[in-house]
């Protein structure tokens, strides 16, 4: 090996840099452990401790110091599945942005195109593209995007805007730019919010040009609070309100009208008159509380007063709201109330007649107008702070700009004169509706009060300061992981990594002796380099990422195995140790096989990185980095030790007494039994396809959408009992399985998955708690059941939600990823081997392997004791199987090519091919065996959440080894012409 000194220099330099990069992770971990010890389980105290030392020096290298914040920025970050926390993908409503840009145009073509785009948007298609397609189809050239009543309005006129002379193509460019600016604006607003949320190292990033924004909040524990903070548009408005005595007659009339359509029995009870009396006189204790035959009035659980029309149960708000929006009901409004806007207040709690606390929501009627514009918007607010009101209760004070101060003085003056109220509305929810008792309020200072706690006022002030989102931000995908589950994942990952490392190292020593020791040293250096690169890139380590690292340990020795096996062959042919080593490291020795095998592996890993997201991208990252570092250490680091041994004239044989005779006299006629292997594979393929067509696959929520909860109980639980209980409240959509231990269930439902907004999430969580709390001992509150906290043992330990649109995107990406990987690798093999038959044989083997794995999953998912869902993790496993199947096939094909192109083998064509396959058995079995050992360890110790993922790879590696020998090679031989066979025979038997 030339330039050994240079390679040593770079290896030492790289090792020192890696140690330097990893030192920050060790220091950060120590400081965080100190914080945990200091906080003694109090997360707020722990956070304050870390904040307090953020700017203090915690790492002294002698020549420079680093503060904790600087150390934290340079550490290897743990993903949510290891750290615990909340991960959401927000979809900025491009539809709302387009409406805003078009100034809420009433143009029928425009509005029909918006509706059609929503209905017909294809998987992975951007909404704006779907809108442009729909607009072209609906307008048919008769209406232009640049029409004055659509996008050529005052809002978009001027420089870089739209004028009515533009073509649709020109207008589309401007509209796309404006939509992108809106998403950028939303990104900035969300960044300001999460920076003040109080978690360490939050992450926010835009996902391409889809209008989607990923937000990760490691360590966040209050699920509902975090989701509310992220999805709130902060659309602050100030509305004048109607009082109960002004709108009460309408409610009575609406109630009477609804009896004709909603009540089957014609019976009318006298309670209606009492109810109206209560509504109009603000009496709280009356006979109106008795239940009657009244669609609206019977749902009032407590009478209101002033601007509050009544208090209703949260479960009735959707029904009552639907009634009040019906056209046949709204015609009953008085002429001057025609544009009344009915909205709900912030949820509160009441005590019923028995003293039990119940949830309640207030109903308000706002004084709307033709344009549905509030008397004042929140755009005039320049600052907001959490404070306390005159009663000492948490509140939010706001300061307005000059224009807002003037408008506020006019609005409060009118309210004072008319003795009316002003509703402070945030995101269509009334937070308070105070009256004005001391005259107009000047100076632009106002206050939002209500039933707040301190964290709510902090968050509210935060979102008001950060500004409003340009459009609704819907949570279309979310993952919540408790810190206890994260620690279990770390423990499982660490155990599987250590055991895997030990087994691989032991096998290399047993099989290759001293050379195996050198491979193990190279493996250790490889892990150092791998973690050093991850740290320098600021990568996020996830559980699949740990799986990628463990897999790297299996593949790291592959190159050594190929080189060592080649060296053994050269030694058997009579070459000296130095000549054998030189030949084995040459291009005609092992290097061609190593390069071809790893390029195919890198290509499939690249596809996985491009199409994967979240943890899967982390898996691809570690896998790709691991391939590169493994190549360097296997080829160069191990070679340094081998050359050192040769220079000292020490013995090196690449075998031990245990392995010296393995495969040395192995002669098996692989092509002779090809009819049997073809028949076996054909039967497996037919059975698999039949099962896929009839039995299908257990598609996870990644592919079909839905909600998944991992719930732990205090003792073993009956699956069928829970399934029956939840099926009733989730409209029959409840799948319940044991997940790992018999006191842990995986609950999947599609209930309300298409409803956006945090209210739907809270409703599902509340239903889950209400129906499962009977299985826990007393004392498990809703907050403890839903939210994460240190040491959590029971309740929801992990939750995820995938909206149908995201599921369609994921499924589309998965198809393209698998097809793309096959195509790219097939093209590479055509270029590398220069014969299409090699590529066809490899592709046939890969398709065989993929169908085999899918068939196993289709046949077995109903009775296997672990999850076999088809999700993103499974697609990652399939792509990994494709990579390893290609890897094995390339190793075999490279030797077949060598034998067919050379002249050292005699006999007929089939005999030459069989000799080539037999000569590579040791390397084929060894490379597969190390992988199988590692995967078995991960399957046993890696944890329940990745067991199905590992099982797919385990089956794939076994089947891939079989297909390389019994499918790929026979297909290669059978597709070569008879003339080619005879030509090769003539060349080899001269």
Automatic annotation (TrEMBL):
It is found in: Cell membrane. Residues 374-471 form the SecDF P1 head subdomain domain. Keywords: Cell membrane, Membrane, Protein transport, Translocation, Transmembrane, Transmembrane helix, Transport. It holds the Pfam family Sec_GG. It comes from the Bacteria. GO terms for molecular function: protein-transporting ATPase activity. It is a multi-pass membrane protein. Residues 184-240 form the Protein translocase subunit SecDF P1 domain. One of its GO terms (cellular component) is plasma membrane. Residues 472-644, 792-974 form the Protein export membrane protein SecD/SecF C-terminal domain. The keyword Transmembrane helix applies. Forms a complex with SecD. Part of the essential Sec protein translocation apparatus which comprises SecA, SecYEG and auxiliary proteins SecDF. Other proteins may also be involved. Forms a complex with SecF. Part of the essential Sec protein translocation apparatus which comprises SecA, SecYEG and auxiliary proteins SecDF. Other proteins may also be involved. This is Multifunctional fusion protein. It comes from Flavobacterium soyangense. The lineage of its organism: Bacteria, Pseudomonadati, Bacteroidota, Flavobacteriia, Flavobacteriales.
């Amino acid at each position: 090996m030339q330039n050994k000194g240079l390679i040593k220099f770079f290896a030492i330099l790289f090792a020192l840099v890696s140690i330097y990069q990893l030192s920050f992770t060790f220091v950060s971990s120590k400081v965080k452990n100190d914080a945990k010890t200091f906080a003694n389980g109090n997360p707020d105290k722990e956070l304050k401790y870390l904040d307090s030392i953020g700017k203090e020096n915690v790492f002294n290298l002698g020549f420079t110091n680093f503060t904790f914040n600087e150390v934290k920025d340079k550490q290897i970050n743990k993903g949510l599945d290891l750290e615990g926390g909340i991960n959401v993908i927000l979809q900025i409503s491009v539809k709302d942005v387009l409406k805003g840009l078009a100034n809420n145009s009433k143009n029928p073509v425009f509005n029909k195109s918006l509706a059609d785009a929503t209905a017909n948007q294809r998987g992975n298609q951007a909404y704006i593209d779907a809108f442009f397609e729909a607009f072209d189809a609906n307008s048919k050239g008769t209406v232009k995007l640049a029409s004055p009543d659509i996008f050529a309005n005052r809002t978009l006129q001027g420089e870089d805007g739209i004028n009515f002379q533009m073509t649709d193509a020109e207008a589309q460019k401007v509209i796309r730019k404006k939509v992108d600016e809106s998403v950028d604006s939303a990104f900035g607003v969300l960044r300001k919010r999460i920076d003040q949320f109080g978690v360490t190292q939050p992450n926010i990033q835009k996902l391409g040009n889809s209008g989607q924004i990923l937000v990760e909040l490691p360590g966040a524990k209050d699920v509902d609070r975090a989701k509310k903070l992220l999805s709130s548009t902060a659309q602050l408005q100030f509305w004048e309100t109607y009082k109960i005595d002004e709108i009460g007659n309408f409610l009575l009339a609406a109630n009477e009208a609804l009896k004709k359509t909603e009540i089957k029995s014609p019976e009318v009870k006298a309670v209606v008159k009492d109810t109206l009396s209560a509504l109009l006189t603000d009496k709280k204790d009356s006979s109106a509380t008795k239940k009657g035959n009244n669609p609206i009035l019977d749902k009032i659980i407590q009478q209101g007063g002033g601007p509050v029309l009544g208090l209703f149960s949260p479960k009735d708000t959707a029904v009552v709201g639907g009634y009040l929006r019906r056209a046949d009901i709204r015609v009953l409004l008085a002429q001057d109330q025609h544009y009344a806007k009915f909205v709900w207040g912030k949820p509160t709690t009441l005590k019923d007649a028995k003293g039990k606390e119940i949830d309640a929501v207030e109903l308000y009627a706002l004084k709307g107008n033709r344009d549905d514009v509030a008397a004042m918007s929140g755009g005039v607010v320049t600052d907001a702070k959490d404070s306390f009101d005159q009663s000492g209760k948490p509140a939010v004070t706001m300061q307005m700009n000059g224009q807002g101060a003037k408008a506020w003085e006019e609005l409060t003056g009118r309210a004072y004169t008319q003795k009316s109220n002003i509703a402070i509305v945030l995101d269509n929810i009334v937070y308070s509706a105070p009256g004005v008792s001391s005259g107009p309020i000047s100076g632009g200072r106002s206050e939002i009060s209500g039933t707040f706690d301190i964290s709510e006022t902090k968050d509210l002030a935060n979102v008001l300061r950060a500004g409003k989102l340009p459009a609704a931000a819907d949570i279309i995908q979310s993952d919540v992981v408790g810190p206890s589950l994260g620690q279990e994942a770390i423990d499982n990952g660490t155990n599987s990594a250590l055991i895997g490392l030990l087994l691989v190292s032991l096998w290399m020593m047993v099989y290759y002796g001293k050379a195996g020791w050198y491979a193990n040293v190279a493996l250790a250096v490889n892990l150092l380099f791998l973690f050093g690169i991850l740290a320098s890139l600021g990568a996020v380590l996830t559980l699949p990422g740990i799986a990628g690292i463990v897999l790297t340990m299996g593949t790291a020795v592959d190159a050594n195995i190929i080189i060592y096996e080649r060296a053994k062959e050269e030694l058997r042919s009579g070459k000296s140790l130095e000549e054998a080593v030189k030949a084995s490291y040459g291009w005609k020795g092992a290097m061609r096989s190593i390069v071809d095998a790893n390029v195919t592996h890198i290509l499939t890993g690249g596809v996985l990185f491009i199409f994967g997201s979240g943890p899967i991208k982390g898996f691809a990252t570690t896998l790709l980095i691991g391939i590169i570092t493994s190549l360097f250490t296997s080829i160069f680091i191990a070679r340094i030790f081998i050359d050192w041994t040769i220079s000292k004239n020490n013995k090196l044989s690449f075998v031990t007494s245990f392995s010296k005779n393995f495969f040395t006299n192995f002669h098996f006629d692989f092509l002779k039994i090809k009819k049997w292997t073809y028949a076996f594979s054909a039967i497996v393929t037919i059975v698999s396809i039949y099962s896929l067509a009839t039995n299908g696959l257990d598609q996870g929520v990644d592919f079909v959408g839905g909600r998944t909860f991992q719930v732990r109980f205090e003792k073993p639980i009956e699956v069928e009992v829970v399934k029956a209980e939840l099926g009733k409240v989730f409209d029959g959509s409840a799948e319940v399985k044991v997940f790992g231990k018999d006191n842990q269930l995986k609950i999947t439902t599609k209930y309300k998955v298409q409803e956006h907004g945090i209210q739907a999430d809270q409703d599902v969580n509340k239903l889950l708690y209400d129906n499962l709390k009977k299985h826990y001992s007393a004392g498990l509150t809703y907050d403890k059941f839903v939210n994460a906290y240190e040491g959590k043992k029971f309740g929801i330990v992990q939750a995820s939600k995938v909206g149908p649109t995201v599921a369609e995107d994921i499924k589309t990406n998965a198809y393209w990823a698998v097809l793309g990987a096959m195509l790219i690798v097939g093209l590479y093999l055509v270029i590398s081997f220069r014969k299409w038959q090699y590529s066809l044989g490899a592709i046939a083997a890969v398709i065989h392997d993929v169908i085999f794995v899918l068939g196993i999953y289709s046949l077995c998912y109903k009775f296997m004791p672990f999850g076999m869902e088809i999700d993103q993790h499974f697609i990652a496993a399939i792509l990994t199987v494709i990579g390893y199947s290609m890897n094995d096939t390339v190793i075999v094909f490279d030797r077949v090519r060598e034998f067919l192109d050379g002249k050292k083998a005699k006999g007929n064509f089939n005999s030459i091919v069989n000799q080539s396959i037999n000569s590579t058995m040791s390397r084929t079995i060894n490379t597969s065996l190390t992988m199988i050992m590692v995967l078995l360890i991960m399957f046993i110790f890696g944890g329940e959440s990745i067991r199905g993922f590992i099982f797919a790879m385990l089956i794939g590696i076994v089947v891939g080894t079989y297909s390389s020998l019994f499918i790929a090679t026979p297909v290669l031989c059978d597709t070569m012409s008879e003339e080619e066979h005879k030509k090769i025979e003539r060349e080899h038997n001269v």
